[in-house]
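Subject: sequence -> C-alpha cells, single chain

Hey, anyone have a minute? Need the predicted structure for the following. Not urgent.
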Amino acid sequence: MNFVVIISDTLRWDHLGASGNKWIHTPNLDKLAAQSLVFDRAYTGSFPTIPHRTDVMTGRWVYPYRGWTTLPKDEIILSQTLSDAGYTTMLIADTPHLMRDGHCFDRGFTAWKWNRGQESDRSITDLVPFEPPCDDAKTRNPRLMKQYHWRWRARHWRTERDTHTARTFQDAADWIELNHKHERFFLYVDTFDPHEPWDPPQHYVDLYDPGYAGQRLDHPPYDFIDRIGATPNEVKHARALYAGEVTLLDTWLGRLMEKLEYCGKLDDTVVIFHSDHGFNIGDHGRFGKTQYRKEQLDWPFFEEVSHVPLMIRAPLGPRGRRSHFLAQGVDLMPTILDLAGVATPPTVRGVSLAPVLVGDGAPKRSVAITTHELNATSDYCATLCSSITNGVWTLHYRGNETAWELFNVAEDPGQKRNLARSRRDVAQRLHRQHLAQLRHAGVREEVVALRSRLP
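Reply:
Had a minute. Here:
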C-alpha cells in the first residue's frame, strides 16, 4: 500500500463545499470527499503549526512535553518508521517552519524538497521594487514582509504556476510520475496555503469580491478588528483573499489527484487530506488563530480555529461516508502504520482509524482537546485557554478560578450564546473528561492540579 498525505496550513473546516459551504469553489476537494471517509468532527490537538505536525509525526500529543520546538531526535517518527520498513519516503513542502531554523522535519525521509519564499523565509536579498498592499498598522510583521515575501513575489511570480501552491503540488505530481514504480512509497505534501499572506492570483479573488479597490489586508495582525482599524470592506475583502487561496489550493490539488489516476496508482494508494488549524477572519471581532501577547493568550479556540478537515481515501474504503469520531492529528501515524502492515511503536498515543475505514467499528474518544503547551507549573498553565469538545458541546477552559464559557456548537456553530450558567452539568462532565484526557496524554500531575477545578 502506498500513501500520499497532504497537510494544508490554516484551512478552515467550513471553507469546503463538502462541509456544506454553498459559496466556496472547491470542486476537487469536494470530489475527494465524495471518494473518502470524511471525519466531520476532526480537531487540532497540540497547537499551532509545529506542535500539530509533531503530533502527526510522533503519533502522540506533544502539548504535555513541549511547544514550538525542533522535531526531537529521540522521538520515534512516522517517516523513519516507514523508511525502515522499506518505503521510499519523500517530503515536498513550502511551509517554511518545517525546515528553517533547524526544525528538522526532513528527518527520516529518503529525500525532501523545500520550495522557498513563503512569509518570512529568509530567501531573498534582491533589490526588487514592490508595492505593499496595505498600511504597516494593518500588517503583521511588516518589516519582514517587506524584506522577504513581498519582494520574493515581485521577483518570481508572473503567472499562477509561479505561486508556492502551484509549484509544490506540481512538484508532487512530477514526483509521482517519476516514482510511481517504486514498490512502496510515502509522499508527504505540506502546503502553507491558505495560511497568510493571502495573495492568490487576481482571477481567484474576483470569484469572491470583484471590483474591490481598497487596501488588501493579506497578512493582518493577530488582534481585534477595532484595534487594527480595519474597515468592514477591508474585512470583507480579506475573506475574499482567503477564499481565493482555498480555491487556488483546490485547483492544484486536483493536478496531483489527476497524476495519481493517470499513473494508475489510485487503486493501491491511500490519500489523506488534513489541516492543522483554521483562522478567524473577522469572526468574533478578530483576525488570527491566537494572539501571542501574553495578555491575549486566553483567546478561545473557536470552531473557526480548532475544527479542521480530515478525509481519507482508501482503495477499498468507503466512498462519501461521514464519521463523527473525534479524530486528531495523532491518529494519522497509527492509521498509516496499520494500513501498511507495520507495527505501531509503543510510544504512540493516537488510535488507528483503519477499523472505521474497513467497517469494523470505531475507536473510542470522549473529547478532543485543543491547547497550547501545558508543560509548566506557573500562572501560564493556570490561566491558558484550552478548548474541550465532544463535537456537540465545547468548553473553553482557562484553569482554576478563571472564567469559562460553554457552547452548543451543533446548534450554535458561531459560538455566540454562552450557556455556562444554564448548563453547568454539561460543563462539569466535559471538565472531568478533560482531566482524564490530560492524564492520558501525559500531562504532569502538578500541571493537572492547576486545571482541576471548575469555578
